[in-house]
Each structure stands twice: as C-alpha cells, then as structure tokens.
Amino acid sequence: MNRRKGANNGLAAKAVLATGVSAAIAMLSGCADLMTRSAVAPAWFQSKAVEVKGEGYPDLHKIPVTRKPSADKAAWDAEGAQLKSQAKAIDAATETEANAPDADAIRASAAQLRAQAEEGSAAPDGGTKP
C-alpha cells in the first residue's frame, strides 16, 4: 500500500512540473509574439523593441583612436605656473579690496534693516533707505 502512495506522489510531481513548464513556454511565446507584431504596436513600442534587441547602438569599431598629447610636460608645467600666478593675483586683489565692509558695518546695516522691517518701512529692494 505504501508503495502505491509513493507512485501517486511521483505522478503528481511530474504533472505539476509539466504544467509549470508549459505555462512558462506560453508566457515566453507571448513576449516573443509582441516583439514581432509591428502593425498593432505604437511607434514608441517599436523604438523600445529595437533598443531591447540591441539594434541602433553605435558600432564600437567605429570609435576614433584617442589623440596624442598636444604638448610636452614642460609646456603643461609652464601653463600650470601661469594659472597659479593668476590665482594668486586674484586672491591678493580680493584681500585688499577697500569696498569690503568690516564686521561693525555689517552689524549696523543689519540693525538698521531690522528696525525698518519692524516698523514696516523697509525698502522693497532691501536697501537701507526707504
């Protein structure tokens, strides 16, 4: 009797496996069928289908060979030194700028704007004079 039960379980497992395989094949054939129907699918779907298939991408063999360096190391070092000297000149100009307000002037301006805002007479452009 036990032998017979084991045989039935084996048949059931084979039936389940066969059903699963046939369902998978049916699903895959449906997807393949969608890719071949061109009269029904919209244009955006066709462009996506081409992308999925791998068509329309550039050919890697047509990419140009990289260029050689246009100057030697000495020329690059000279240009680097020139850029560093220009950066130092800009830094020096901004450090000695006479127009930059000091901390006390900034605090005074902020207090004046705050007072004007509290009494409702602040200038619309953020200036200190209404």
Task: Describe the structure in your own words.
With 130 residues, the protein is an all-alpha fold. The protein folds into two domains: 2-56; 73-119, no CATH class. It has four helices and no strands. The chain has helices spanning 2-36, 43-53, 73-95, 103-119. The longest helix has 35 residues, at 2-36. It starts with a helix and ends in an 11-residue tail after the last helix. The model has no long low-confidence stretch (mean pLDDT 77).
In terms of DSSP E residues, the strand content is under 5%
Overall shape: elongated
Query: What is the makeup of the main sheet?
Result: none
Low-confidence stretches: none
Topology:
Layout: H1 2-36, H2 43-53, H3 73-95, H4 103-119
Which descriptors would you attach to this protein?
mainly alpha, 130 residues, 66% helix, 2 domains, single chain, elongated
What's this, in brief?
The chain has 4 helices and no strands. It has helices spanning 2-36, 43-53, 73-95, 103-119.
